[in-house]
Amino acid sequence: xxxxxxxxxxxxxxxxxxxxxxxxxxxxxxxxxxxxxxxxxxxxxxxxxxxxxxxxxxxxxxxxxxxxxxxxxxxxxxxxxxxxxxxxxxxxxxxxxxxxxxxxxxxxxxxxxxxxxxxxxxxxxxxxxxxxxxxxxxxxxxxxxxxxxxxxxxxxxxxxxxxxxxxxxxxxxxxxxxxxxxxxxxxxxxxxxxxxxxxxxxxxxxxxxxxxxxxxxxxxxxxxxxxxxxxxxxxxxxxxxxxxxxxxxxxxxxx
Length: 255
Hints:
Layout: E1 25-27, E2 30-33, E3 36-39, E4 42-49, E5 52-55, E6 60-66, E7 70-72, E8 77-84, E9 88-90, E10 126-128, E11 131-134, E12 137-140, E13 143-148, E14 157-158, E15 195-197, E16 200-203, E17 206-209, E18 212-217, E19 226-227
């Protein structure tokens, strides 16, 4: 009944407090039964074995620090800062309520399984640097569907212009470039270059070959095709103009 009572052991070995049989020792609301520590109704919240503390339930902590490896087999709920100076192995699902920050200068997220690694957002998108992945679409903020991998099976759809600094190579045996728009398809070389189709060279309004690029000129005189060279035809020459003429403007002769 003393207001501040104490049980003191002054011997040189140990003091043991135990319950003989199958009972427990209660200190306030904490129950000790063998190597188990718990409370009434949940007597094995903590189990002590050599070198291992097993928690049969959740661990709620404002700050968790570990200097060695930490293995979590069920649920770990942390309400505050968590500092790990070694490895954290989680064998179950991990749910994070905020941001994961990697402080290493060269950080890596590695998947060592044999099947796949999936990174997905249930309702939003996944951002990698400034690139956004939304379902089968790839884009940026404000233009999230620049590339679509899912509209047509086996086809990459580009919703916008496509610019390439290298060559475009088609390996299909019978390949085609198809325009399905309602206006026009233009193929041009920006600047002072030309467009080659097989051995035929197109330069502005001129058509020719390598070494003779202006054999046919569609732009020198409006409404006229100018042939800079000889013209050979294996069929007939038919003139449908009501008043047609064959005119020679050279200085020598027409034969």
